[in-house]
Design brief:
Elements: E1 8-12, H1 24-28, E2 32-36, H2 44-50, E3 56-58, H3 64-69, E4 77-80, H4 90-93, E5 101-104, H5 107-117, H6 123-133, E6 138-142, H7 160-163, E7 168-170, E8 173-175, H8 178-188, E9 195-197, H9 199-206
Parallel strand pairs: 1-2, 1-6, 2-3, 3-4, 4-5, 6-9
Antiparallel strand pairs: 7-8
Length: about 210
Amino acid sequence: MSIFKNKSVALIGPADHIATFKQAKRISFFDLVVRTNTALPIPEDVEKCTGKRCDVLYCNIMNDATGQATDLYDIKEFRAAEEAIMDVDFEKVSRFYDKFKFNKIDKRWAEDLAKKIGTYPNTGFQAICEILAEQCSVLYITGFTFWQSGQYYKGYLNDERLEKKTTYLKGDVQVHAQAPQIEYFMKNIYTLPQVICDPILEHLCETEFKFIK
């Protein structure tokens, strides 16, 4: 059975307000806390605002610092697509996966999702869709602005290409295009009764994204 089924989940993204918006107490009440990519080790300012928990790590990029930092957290499950690990020898980092349950994201499911959205989504957006598909009871989404905030929190990424938030083509499908992800979110996710957005994302949905409904 899925780790998310009938569980309340807090999904913490990399938007810069995560380092200043204090919500550690609220997050502590969720059954599972999920983080993405190079969120580990958690910077001190982010930890003060969100707590130290990381029950599930969705990771389509990996570096040694993140892998080594997994010793500091009680991770129950690691999710990734093997072919999605960027710029890293999969065998080199696979030693870290022996510490906890490693669950590969189904390639066909991921490709079908990309077709539905119209782009290969960011790791966090893929996590949103998969957690909901696995029937969580509540999904609290924080630290996501669809690149509207301008930057990730300091210490999240050290890859210049990713920090620039560029899109690119994978075959004939664009990767990380934000407009189709916003449209899919507004039409298929935002109004679901089990979905709760943090105030920053809620404001975007009710102002800049509202016309998409």
